[in-house]
Structures
1.
Amino acid sequence: MDFFELVKLSLISLNANKMRSALTMLGVIIGVASVVAMISIGEGAKGLITKSIEDMGTNLLFVMPGQMKVGGGGHGMGSIQTLTFEDCREIEKNCPSVVGCAPEISKSAKIKAGNQNTVTQVVGTSERYPEVRNTKIAQGRYFTSLELHNQKKVAVLGQSVVDNIFFNIDPIGKDILINRIYFTVIGVLEAKGQSGFTNVDDMIMVPVTTFQKRLFGLDYLRNISVQVKSAELMDSAEQEVGELLRKRHRILNPDDDDFTIRKQTEMLNRMSDITSAFTMLLGGIAFISLLVGGIGIMNIMLVSVTERTREIGLRKAIGAKKADILKQFLIESIVLCVMGGLIGILSGIGMSYLIAKFGNWNTSVSTASILLSFGFSIAVGLFFGIYPANKASGLNCVEALRYE
Amino acid sequence: MTDENKPIIEIKGLTKIYDTGKIKVNALNGVDFSIKECELIAIMGPSGSGKSTMMNVLGCLDKPTDGTYHLDGTDVSTMSEDALAEIRNQKIGFVFQTFNLLSRTSALKNVELPMVYAKIPAAEREERAKKALSAVGLEERMYHMPNELSGGQQQRVAIARALVNDPKIILADEPTGNLDSRSSEEILLIFQQLNRAGKTIVIVTHEPDIAQHCKRNVVFKDGEIVTDKKVEHILDAKAVLEEINKKSHHLHPHLNQ
């Protein structure tokens, strides 16, 4: 029997038990749909993180106080307060591979404007921040180096803060209270949207000098973002910054560093590792459900073989070879899986669309995941079909004909 | 042309032992047996006599434990399962007591089935199946499903299916066991007509009445042939049918008007 005829035959026999075929297929449909949807969620998260890291700016090094040490003592990263704004300025001045630096320190503070209150993150930084961290101004302007030098009480608001306390009023030139100190709003940052689990628009930027001296009385930084001239210079920039800081902090042995330098690409890799693991986890769970669907197929095919024992006996009696019977049942289970797979892919795409629309989550259906799950569903049909088909083809003709 | 003296089936020292592990059952004990072309033969015997085993071996459904079986000149007793499948497909037509038609499949498609396994192109299949169905008088019911046909009609579809690959021999296992006497007679009439046209037919039955329609009767008992005789007064199915018609006309005159 040729392939086309076998497919037709299997459609007839699947059609004979519509409900049963549909329920069996449902297992595969759910499996394939969840593979497609879950991988689309994982891929979406990956795309989002990649984009948000790119939003940070390019060719960045991050200098953080403290040291990453596996085991043993030492200071934990970010736990000590040795990094200062002077360090930041010196890096800018003395490292030839560096374009510019943006210091960063933040604390949450109470904000008041008119009769509106909110709590948000106040970030102290320098005039270089927009350039280094690839941030644009939507309205007004950013603060200047002079304002920074003079510890001016000027603030640049994130879009969410504007939405929270100003509604439809133009905030430029208005006064706001940060921890009961008056600041003048001079600009609004362009919205960047949700980045992973943090809202990067929910913050206020002020000159780092004002932050340290006037608002919180501190002299340290949380980190410094260093922009390097080009990707090739990353390693030499890392070395220059390290040497400079060691000199400034009077450290002789690099093992005793009180700071850590991270490359942006490292972070990117780590994040993509995490999201890959996330995708694998989701996909893995989905594949298990596809596997369960496959077991359902095997079960039904076994029932079908038993039910059709006499038919198998007759087919053999009138000349069907072992391979003919094997092919017939194998193709039946593959047809079941392929149909389930196609419906599953469509519903998986639908599911990921709905998740994106109503779940406020980025999803991206990749061709690879469609091909993967479709191929896998054929494989499931083949794998779980072989045992029943083999059982059918191995039936003894005489006994099968006599089967009641 | 058929040669009346050429043996189509030649069996020598045929033994079949069913080994169930604990006990061995000798279903056939060194049977010698031959069937010539154009015979119409009834194999009889009580249950357990070995007639079903004989039927299975004749039909190449089962292999003998010992002995040789030549079908149409070739030794089939040592052939592989797939080779036997091809022999069954090409040289043997089966008719079963329970018809064994595929449900939800039209009479035409049922008859086409042996040709499907013979890899005959679809157009030719349909043409030949239609011819075979016409030969058994079912040209009007080709597209009916088996459950829309009477028992006798279903058995006639099965005969058409057995005929369609033009086999050397037709094996019928209790072909009238599930039919009333009139349908039985109709089936026997078809067999007698086919035989007259040159087909070799073997009918397995336990009813002497049916056997009386055949030219030769072979009786099995305890795995051996106890009787092998020519039938003296062969019943003509056509005459019997006329008799039945007359009777029912007599009983229900309004039915046959």
2.
Amino acid sequence: MGKILMKGNEAIGEAAIRAGCLNYFAYPITPQSEVAEYLSRRMPEVGGVFLQGESEVAVGYMLFGAAGCGARVLTTSSSPGISLMSEAISYISSAELPVVFVNIVRGGPGLGGILPSQADYFQATKGGGHGDYRLLVLAPSGVQEAVDMVMMAFPLAEKYRNPVMILGDGLIGQMMEPVEFSDHLKSEPSNKDDWATNGMDTRNRKERNLVKSLFLDAELLEEHNLVLKAKYDRMKQEEVRYEPYNLETDYRALVVSYGTMSRVCKTAIDNMKAEGIEVAMIRPQTLFPFPIDPIRAAAAKDGCQAAISIELSMGQMVEDVERSVQGKCPVHWHGKAGGEIPTPEEVVDVIKSLIK
Amino acid sequence: MENLKGIVVVVGNYGSGKTEVSINLAVNRKRAGIDVRIADLDLVNPYFRTREARKPLAELGIEVVVPAEKYLKADLPILSPVVAGLIRRPSQLTLIDAGGNDVGATVLAALGDSLRKKSVHMLQVVNPYRPFTETFEGCLKMRDEIEKTSKMTINGIIGNANMIDETAIEDIYNGYDFVKALSGESRLPLKFITAPATLLAEIDTGRFSCPVLPIERQLVPPWIKAAGLKK
């Protein structure tokens, strides 16, 4: 099969099937609903299941249950829906189960609006639910990358026995781009005997698997948290992904931007290059783990006068940029959160105002 | 395209390019000296709607009928009462851009009484590079579903084969062959096909038995500039 023209939301649905995921539970919400619509049509064709929950709270526990049985499982939603799932996300993380979440972010807080936003950065990377847990967070900047990240998300979730979240935004879900799909993955996690409560017959071990998140004994809970922390530390070592842009030049400023916003920044950087002004960008593809070292190294380069976090929020990722830059140069923020996306011209003006 | 007069309803599956085609058809006919109005009846899609292009269209003297300003960014099924008036007293060319699939075409049934009294061209936009319409079977199924919910009959095809930015000349030729054969299969006339205006000079239009509508892309993501529309 060659390339096909798809909306981000449709492509995410198709990618899940190619990734061998035959269990999809969701509840419709703009601007994500096309995933549910697409999979309601496609899942029966491939022998899979789409079950629409009575709410996102219910969906969260459907995911918990299915993952606990060893099924490869996906949900997609948009901001308010993810908030409703947050309790289950905490439980699933503690129970160390692999689930893939897709958040096609819309404006907030509260019901907010239906236009693109990146205001769920904190929710995705720092919590949302309770307790010391982390999600591995992937951030696509186009439809093809959304497909690739869905294909990658299931094996990653299983490798770490941890939820993976794909943080898109309304535009990633709604825009169309030509995409292609790689071959089908197998439809079962290869390591599911490590956690699944799928009966004793298939296993070479004597003890039963137990899916739980309750540890009343302080020592046991401490030990459990240390196991989780070791996993998150390993993600920081092994899973940092980012795209450098124009980093090989003698740039005067470093932009850090992801998703839809980074596409606008690329156009702005190209336009400035044509004027003879070099600006570089690091585009995090993983938001957790965050590309701390590459950003620090890029900000420390001679001639770099400013690091600018440009995001569709009122300043969330900028805190991680500050943490990464560690004072090597001044850190600034620019962004919008209402749903309107800054234009390339606006980004050029902002960068120019911060450099000599 | 010259014979497209009166009310033209544009339908098709999600993302087939109804809106981009409607906008460019409106511009093309306006440039030919015809009085054009266009109604955004997309009640199902939250992004990339005709309303996004209302400014450049207005500058060309094309009236765009959209819901009241304060509801423009809502995902609410709002049908402007102006639409019924538009149908009762059509301009030389009145374009109705419906929403995607059978769901998007449902609104047409609500306008049925006023539409049935008029002669209406209802045209199905087909992009064979989109999911569910890459086969004749898929296109015909879409046609049936749209006809059932809209309670109207499709009487022509618009070939809109494209891969947006990555459209190659071969895609246009192969897409034409597909819709030409679909036209034979469905006994629906092929009204016209589209091609990016930027590729037009390189395309051998002698291959086609129908007119070609040049597309000057208006529905773009924020990092790409929409094509400037000259009078």
3.
Amino acid sequence: MRLEPINNPTLARKLVPPALALASTVVIASLLAMVAGANPFSVIGLILKGAFGSKFAILETLNRATPLIFTGLAVAVAFRAKFWNIGAEAQLYAGALVTVLLGTGFLPWSSFAILPLIIVASIIVGAVVLLVPALLKTRFGVDEVVTTLLFNFIFLLFISMLLEGVLKDPMGMGWPKSARLIPEARLPRIVEGLRLHWGFGLAILSAVGIWIIQTRSTLGYEMRAVGLNKEAAAFAGIPVNVVIVKTALLSGGLAALAGFSEVAGLKGSLTLDLSPGFGYTGIIVAMLALLNPLAVVVAALFVAGIFVGADSMSRAADVPTYLADIMLATALLLMVLAIMLTRFRVVRD
Amino acid sequence: MSDTAVEALSLNAITKRFGELTANDAVSLSVNVGEVVALLGENGAGKTTLMNILFGQYTADSGTVRVFGDTLPPGNSRAALDAGVGMVHQHFTLADNLTVQENITLGVQSLLNPSLGHAAAKARIAALSEKFHLAVAPDARVGTLSVGERQRVEILKALYRDVRILILDEPTAVLTPQETDNLFATLRLAIAEGLSIIFISHKLHEVMAIADRVVVLRHGKMAGAANTKDTDQNALAAMMMGSEASPPEVSPAKPGPPLLALRDVTTPDVGSVPGLKSVSLALKAGQIVGLAGVSGNGQTAMADVVAGLLNPTDGDVEMGHETVKKWSPRIAVESGIARIPEDRHKTGTIADFDLVENAILERYKSPDFSKGGWLNWRKSRAFADGIIEKYDVRCPGSSTPIRLLSGGNMQKLILGRVLEAGPQIILANQPVRGLDIGAVHYVHSQLLAARDRGAAVLLISEDLDEVMALSDVIHVIADGRLSPEFKRGEMTPAQLGLWMAGQGFESDTAHAS
């Protein structure tokens, strides 16, 4: 048996394998729920109900999707240029750190100026955090997978140090937690009374912006060229290393917005459990979206829906929440296989 | 061959289709014991497909393969090897970091105890190497060997496995004329031992020199078959090319002032591939300079310097009469150098980009195609459509990914991309490698037309015939050193061959050290 590439896949060829992957995920999740002692036929209904079954559920899913859109975009942008940024988690915390540094009141800003300032500063610091691995790669050939991954741990420990020290909230009853943001530094809600903040709007805007950059701008063209064929790009006169650094800056800035949006829109302060691995889940989101920035939004909603829905389902059916992680992993693996099957056919000799 | 000929291998009415394309259309080929059969045809004629079917990489739509009377099961890649068929590929399949002996015994020695039978293997290699005049050092690392030596290792590897039928794919492409003679001597010894040989080539004089019979493929069909003693090169050429156009007429050159010059340029060696050693070369307006040489003797460094990819460690690049201070691919493009790269798949185009994106690859930053960092896709598409029209690029449309195009059409797009601006300096590195004869003539006529309107052309090719046919002036490059300039017709191929083998450079040895 071997694989033969399909040059012009039909619409059915593009749609059927992903649909089958989704269906298989559902079947596997149901079987696992059965093993855990729940009724397998009610599991999917409960997940859907938990994720999209009420106004509250939908808003919760959108809130959960917001940081995933940012980290998903960060990964999609970087991977498109074959810059393997595994460090969105660190860049996310960089954005969160900047947000609490500027937003907890030791600067007397008016509410009009403070949010744009925090946003710009978060982007810059997130970008700088990824600049180091980018320069190590372009100057010395150091593998960015290793550096960005290890940076996550370094940065998280650094935040931990700050939260146990200078940033520790004196009113925090001893918990490693920063002071709360002043009201002017909080992201307002999109509709008053509904628990959905403007971070979601910013995420959608970013996705559209990145899509426009990738399809219309010379930078997007350069990033795609470098990602597809570095040698040809260099021959044609595209400054490959400069493009990689620019890509890294963009990617780091996007990931930092996830941290900003979580702190300023949702949590109001910085803790060490701000992100339950949004940086890593962003990789899943980007892969599911085939690195397409608009599809990142859909993939983030899908992943967030599974998380929120599985949370609710596990309470209702009394099974462990780990089921959500297993479902995501299954969905990703099957989707990767499905994507391959949209481009190759299996030939038996 | 005598009447008692025993058939060693036969391919019977092999047909293989890939979608619309019929790569092999009822192709038959047989080899008897002790016979050399040449498979002749341009690249793209279907030779590789036929060999892939023989080795089970592809399954034929119809037809059978027989080795010594037994039909091979289709699609089984071990079957042909087990039946005693061996192949020496054009691109060698050797591990650089292993020794010659390790490469030869790889896969046939004991996995658990690789040193088992080491001495016996060594003795066997020594015996084979002496018997077939294939001089190699068994303990040398393959990475340190020359191309000719590597080929000898490949042949030994096949002989070590007791092959009865040996297939050589374009074996002379990387050899000097003298090395080719040695190879032929080895092949004659092998035939005397009762081996059978299939010799794949597109060089007519070599086919005439070594083969007993010739089978000619053209566009996947059998264009003819003949015994070499009953035919001649002209007849074979006619079979190979069919009714297609003859090579373009070359008018005398009218050289003008030098447009680009390298002055004592030196570049670093890359592994075992030499860089340039104090090379000076002038490209004059209205003249084609041909660079002949065996692959891996500094052609890449030369091309990279002219293309802007490589900065000399010593010496200068001069344009007009000014020394170039900053040098990069983009500066080269902006200075009006048209660059046709050696590898159109890897460096010339981006496979998953469509024709529009590939057409603007070098100039997407110019005001023609973008403004303030935003691309103008309408103008870009118009540019690509213009090239497709003018240079006759056969494709389903400009939004097709370029990887779906044939090599010839890909090369036409590259030609259009670089020639549309009316460049004064043209670097053509292996411009026709792998193209069919029609595309070859097209590319050559475009280069000649550019020369006639006053462009300076540097033609780098491993095909001596091509260099001699097109160039007004020839230099030979060997081990990174450049021969003096030879005028058109001044040297015979044999004389150039001596230079290609590195003779005649004695006076320059001071530089080489």
4.
Amino acid sequence: MSFPILSLMIWLPLIGAALMFIPQGSDAASARNARWIALWTSLIVLILAAITLVDFNPGIHGFQFTETAAWIPQFHIAYRLGLDGISLFFVALSALLTPIAILASWRETRRVRDYMAAFLLLETMTIGMFSALDFLMFYIFFEAVLIPMYLIIGVWGGERRIHAAIKFFIFTLAGSLPMLLALVWMWHHAGTTDMITLMHTPIPPHIQDWLFIAFLASFGVKAAVWPLHTWLPDAYGEAPLPGTIMLAAVLSKMGAYGFLRFSLPMLPQASAYFAPLMFALGIMGVIYISFAALAQTDMKRMIAYSSVAHMGLIIVGIFTFTVIGIEGALFQMVSHGLVIAALFLCVGILLARGHSLRLDQLGGLATRMPVFAAFLMFFVMANVGLPGTSGFVGEILVMIGAIQINFWVAFLTGTGMILSVMYMLVMVRRVLFDHARSIANAVMSDLSAKEWLMLAPLAILVLGLGFIPSGLTTAFHTAVTDLVHAHVAAMSPLSHLAMAKP
Amino acid sequence: MTIFDTMLPILFLALAAMIMLMSGVFSRRDHSFAITGAAIVLFAITARLMFAAPDGTIFHGLFITNDFTRFADLLVLMGAAGALSLSVAFNQRTGITRFEYPVLIVFAVIGMVVLISAGDLLTLYLGFELMSLALYVLAAFARYNLRSSEAGLKYFILGALSSGILLYGISLVYGFSGTTEFTGIARAFTGSASASLGSTIGIVFVLVGLGFKISAAPFHMWTPDVYEGAPSSVTAFFATAPKVAVFALLLRVMLGPFAPLFAQWQDLVQILAAASMIIGALGAIGQSNIKRLMAYSSIGHMGYALMGLAAGSLIGVRATLIYLAIYVVMSLGTFGCIIAMSRKGRPVERIADLAGMASEDGRYALVLAIMMWSMAGIPPLSGFFGKFYVFAAAIDAHLNVLAVIGIITSVIAAFYYLRVIKVMYFDAGSPGFDKRTAGINLVIGVSAIATVLFVFYPSPLSTVSSLAAHALFPSQGF
């Protein structure tokens, strides 16, 4: 058996979190230790993630770095881990953003130890979820995210944090529980919860429809597909900034990843049947949410809405069932993860200087904080898909995929993208340009070294992926092609006959 | 010698209980602490003896020992020992320390062991009443406390009613099958082509009588009042051992002698399960007293456990057993936390009293939060696995509607469990609770660790419960 690198990445943060709870004298000492333990643990995980990126062989079909161990052998449930081209980058994204989120919360003073432990717990859950190859494990990680996130929002959040935390928890739980039934049904049907076996187990079409709805409920809520997104503005708005970063950049990808990993390969007929609905939801998301974003008066909430709009685009890309559309969606997911994290970091930078986030109280920052302004401008451009940034590649690929399916789908999605340019530019104007408004108490210093350290890598990645998109696409090309081929094969009339036979 | 070997654990318990009672009565000084300790040791020894006792049916089918009864016995002993360890400090604080307390619990446990091993309707009733009488007295144990006396009286009157119904059901079953022995009843019911109305009514009455004791809706009315009124240490006991014992018996009766008429009673059990889950979820929302909250929570949990019985299969029984085992551990942890809620020696019971707990006593808050999350069925905690297995059993038996109801009530229930966590973590306040005793720390610590770490090692429990379930279905090979 090879080196269990995935297990290490999953359990290291948990061990780190446990280490923090060793009594260490004064509160100040324990807070300081907690910060450093959290940072170092997440950095080690980041290095391990980098190793998986380097070692990953894009030519191999199926999963790599696989690990298997007995867990509940009586019920054919096992500890199974592995990465393919689809999950590889999400693990990397989680590993990259956790240390950034921890750095961003360096100044947190309230119950630091619990706070850092919650973030490490969150890292365990997210990496575990993206690398799980057993449905029960996937479900456990998927659902367990609620526990640290509930506390992060509820304890360290903003004014209406309690409302937001409970809404987030109940919404997500209500969404996930139907998936538990689907999981139980599939386990009963296939006799195992091994995801690879499940992908190759045909399911009768009329059952597929029900399972698809169950998956839609859980993944749709996590990915904030319109109209299941209403928890999101509250949760994003009230969570402490590092929490918002994790929510927007990593947790929302869980839903989209779920569609790719479960709905498409396991329920091909139902996915095809429901594709028009998903297009409609995706397009509604893009257009309706963009208008909603225009009406926001708070910078953080505006970016939150922009995040929902982009999830709509990703959903459209996934359900084109074309290689290029799905690759576009994947690319957009990675890119959006980086960009939205950077945008929220910018919000955090303003917040740390004592600025209000109300758009009518900001303004004129371009002259006072030029470096910050440049970064913000750059990430806004990446968010609206300016060529040369990673956002452009994802959008254009999704468009190409969509136009192969239906002109109107592509057209309406494109309209939504134009709207996104509109509200993002409105935001930039209000924040950076215009005349300076009441900013009496705010500090006007430009970026500190730590802030540079957080924003620069993201900017480099966004730019790099914009210019050399093949770095990403070659890695997941094999996985996506296999996925689409399997889907086409399942949809061919021959397999219908095979399924009709008992 | 097999009869003696099989009877040894219960003989030992009964003898020891008598000695404890006598030593308490004839001693001048108060020995309650020593007797409580002795009772816990006694339970441990009994558990050891149960492993040694051979499988068998003795006294012409009156008393049965197999893996199933052993599993249930162990759960009962565990629940009783846990509740006893929690009781010491609480009883001292509230001034109800008397040597009768542990003795009564031991008598109740004897009743439960008889109940679990019953192979005949007569043994069943004997065990049932022995258990119940001890429980009635325990409910009113704080006899100068108005609420406790009320709880005892209420429990007694309603309990007597349910015993009457049970007895009536037993007589009907006897009348229509001609025997009180389980195997004989099964044979009689298998022979008849269709069930007679009388035997069906008999089965329904037995189900009602037993349903009362596990507080399955709509026979749950007594639960919130008794849970609230009885001293917390007694409530901790009520929530664990008797529930397991009666549930184990319910499984054995319904899937043993009454199994041939499965089609007749399956719908009824489904209704009980659905009603319990719904009432458990909705009833708890408005509660401000944590003991009442836990009463509704236990009603809901019984509904989930009943799902396994409604499935009527080996998978279902296994799921129910796993659920009960996990439930006992969670309940002990939760009630440990509830018992620890006291200010200047006086117990406090309002949920609002927990405000600010997380910043004052992080460990306590963490343990109670873990218990609440686990009860809500949030993975990776053990409560999730309980739900997972019962849902699997329900889907396996095509009880899709029941499973969907279970899902919906889980979401509703999550709301009120979350409220407890919300009060502890998000609200400001300073509870200022008294220092916890070692007994409470031990129980809540062990149950919290078991609840959290269960995910890493779930297979032993499923192996053991498989063994137990197979004892109930001897025809199906392991």
